[in-house]
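Board notes (copied after class):
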Amino acid sequence: MTDKLFKTRIYVTLLITLFVWGLLIWDYFHGGVPSHHILAREDMPSISNWWGGVLIPVLIWFLTFRIQKRLTREAIHPVIEVPRNIWLPFLAALLFGILLSVSFAFRVSGLPGYMMLSVFVMAFFFPVYRSEYLLGFVLGLIYTFGGVLPILIGSILILAAVIIHKLIRPAILFVWSKLR
């Protein structure tokens, strides 16, 4: 079981690494690899998208390890296919990231801000701190923001989601149950 999951991790990591490096090479030959300034301020240091070529494969390897660990611990599904409780959250987060990228790129007024705030609401109802959510979110943002900024933004959102889902939610549910 673990051997097949390990091979899947290798294939997923290689596929995404090829995508990221293909995007970097495309950028290099079509105007140069962009850099993004911290907090979108010109007076702050910039982070080159080249870092994504190294950080994204490491992140993918780490996140797929966490998913593999959870699947082997739960032993809920045959190993030949990835279960629906992994794919659906991944696809939802991927679509969320793509929509966020598109709305930011086309300067849709207010939508990116509301989308980021909606993550906190979703964290109350869903475990959006899990690896498949972060994986989909980061992959959805790579084309527009490179590799480093999605990792930073995703990490901050994951930290907030853990606090909301593991601390605030149980406290509110406990108080609610006592009031009823």
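Comment from the instructor: The chain has six helices and two strands. Residues 2-179 form one domain.
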